Every structure is written in structure tokens, then in C-alpha cells.
Amino acid sequence: MKILILDGYTLFQNDIDRSIFEKYGEIMFRDRTSREELKQVDHSAEVIITNKCPLSADDLTLFSNLKLILVSATGYNIVDVNACSKKGIHVCNVPNYGTFSVAQHALAMLLNYSNQIDLHEKSVKRGEWSTNKDWSYTLSPIQEWHGKTLGIIGMGNIGQAFATMAESLGMQIMYHHTKDLKLANRKFVSIHELATTSDVVSLHCPLTTKTDKMINSEFLSLMKKSAIIINTSRGGLIHSLDLKSALISGQIKAALLDVLEVEPPAVDHPLIGIHQAIITPHIAWISFEARKRILTSLENTLKLFGEGKIVNGVNSPI
């Protein structure tokens, strides 16, 4: 079995051994692959492992032997699943690998914003505490989250994990989801009520035709001027120009973002360089532990596929 790994660098980096797949066949490893470079790879592959390298219906025509696509993530929108089904190609993903890593990153962004640890730690290193007239000083306001309201959009595994972390800070939890999950001490509300009531809005939903740019000028206009928004899910959930306008005008206080709609973003992306936008480079998922879970899941799926079994499948090939 020939296995083509299209964009292995972010997954394996320098701390995970890629040889774990060698027992299942010949490995063709690429650190990264662009859409154009797909025309140049070995097209005899029977299995493709991809994360961000897209595979459209046209791209699939290049691979006449392809039987399985493994997406090394939970979201699989980078693959034309319908085209795969018509061609008899199975598509499998990796569910639930990064629940606590992603929730932890959302919490880290929230606490970094409220406590400004990095700002003050660097001040001490510069010697500013040693020369200060007072035993305590701040370079930015410090705020407490106890008693504040967190509104979560998408109360799946990650949303619930983040809710539990926020509850430990004393926050009140409300959420909007596809349905009322009847969760104890967590109030199911309309999207309108969530926007108008929350001190913090955190996005934990998939990117679909219904959620595309759901955070837009209309939603942002409903939020408190003191409120902040967190996105560790998908960049396309937010209309970037609308968010930029809301931040600059003071319509909302800040945006804490780990994702943007195109990654890597253009150097002139409207949110990069905005003081009120704190952005990290899509690293919520990337803990060593989460990446190990991905590899374990991929290996298990590949092993069972060799035995004629499909797990974590997201389509039904004809």
C-alpha cells in the first residue's frame, strides 16, 4: 500500500517519529504541498493523509488508485467528500483529539487578556520593578472573571470543556446550540440573547453554510461595548472587516483569535496590527498530547482499513 502524506510537518514536527506508518506500506512524506504541487507528486498513492492541503474533484482525477483519504483533523471541509463518494473513495477524520488542548488555549487567551502576564513579566525583566517607587504597579488594567457571563456558541465537546474551565473561575455559562442540551447550570439561549448578555463570547462550532460569517456587523452591534470575543474554531465564522470596524469604533472591547479565514493570512489582513485584536497562529490544537492522539487515531484507522473495516468515516462511497 502506497501512503502519501501531503503536509506532515505541522503534525509530526521534530518530536514525533513518522516511521509509525511504515508497517502499513510505502510512505511518501512531504512537509507541505500546495494545490499546484499536487500535479507533481506520485499519483499511484492508494492512501492520502492531509490536514490543510485541499483535494477537490479535479485534484482527485490525478489519483487513479486512491482508496482512502485520512484527514488528520476533525474538520474535513478541505476534501470534496461528495466527489470522493462518487469515486468510491473513503474519507475518514480524527474526532475529539484536541478537546482539552483547544479549550485550554481559549482559557489561556482569556486569562492573558485579563491579567496581562506577558506584559508585566517583560516589564520586570527590563528592570522596571526594581526602579519603581511602589511595591506594586500595573501597565494595564487587571480584571476578574468571577460573576461574569460567558456565552458559548457550539456546545460540543470543546465548548463543554471550556465551559467547565470557565466555571472554575466563577463565570456564569449560557450557550447557543442546534438544540437545548438540558445542561445543569448552563442556560440555553437564542443567539440574540447570547450576544446582548455575554461579557465573553466564545466560538466552538463548525464552519458550515449556516455559520459562515455569523459574527458580522449585526451580531457585533448587539454585544456589550465591554465584551470580548474568542475564536479557536474556524476563521470563516467571523466577518473580518466587520470585526475590524467594531474594534476600532469601540463597539466591542477586544477579539482573541487563534484562527483566520485564510491561513497563513495575507500580510495586510485587516485584523493583523489592530491593537484590540490578539492573534495566535492556529496553535490551539498543536499540543504534543493532541498530536499524539491524532497519530494514534490515524494508525488505528489505517490498520482497520487494511482489514477491510472503516472507522471514523464521514462519507458513504458508491
Short recap of the structure:
The chain is an alpha/beta fold.
User: What is the SS-derived class?
Assistant: alpha/beta
| Integer average pLDDT | 96
Q: Would you identify the CATH architecture of the largest domain? A: 3-Layer(aba) Sandwich
Low-confidence stretches: none
Task: Looking at this protein, list some descriptive labels.
Rossmann fold; alpha/beta; 318 residues; 5-stranded parallel beta sheet
Written account of the structure:
The structure is a single chain. The protein has 318 residues and is α/β, with parallel strands linked by helices. It folds into two domains: 2-93 and 288-306, NAD(P)-binding Rossmann-like Domain (Rossmann fold, 3-Layer(aba) Sandwich); 99-128 and 137-279, NAD(P)-binding Rossmann-like Domain (Rossmann fold), CATH 3.40.50. 29% of the residues lie in helices and 15% in strands. It is built from ten helices and twelve strands. The protein has a seven-stranded parallel beta sheet with strand order 8-7-6-9-10-11-12, sandwiched between helices. A five-stranded parallel beta sheet has the order 2-1-3-4-5. Helix 4 (99-115) packs across helix 6 (157-167). The protein is globular, with a radius of gyration of 22 Å. It starts with a strand and ends in a 12-residue tail after the last helix.
Set out the fold topology:
Blueprint: E1 2-5, H1 9-12, E2 26-29, E3 47-50, H2 57-60, E4 68-71, H3 81-86, E5 90-92, H4 99-115, H5 117-125, E6 149-153, H6 157-167, E7 172-176, E8 186-188, H7 191-197, E9 200-203, H8 217-222, E10 228-231, H9 240-249, E11 254-257, E12 277-279, H10 288-306
Parallel strand pairs: 1-2, 1-3, 3-4, 4-5, 6-7, 6-9, 7-8, 9-10, 10-11, 11-12
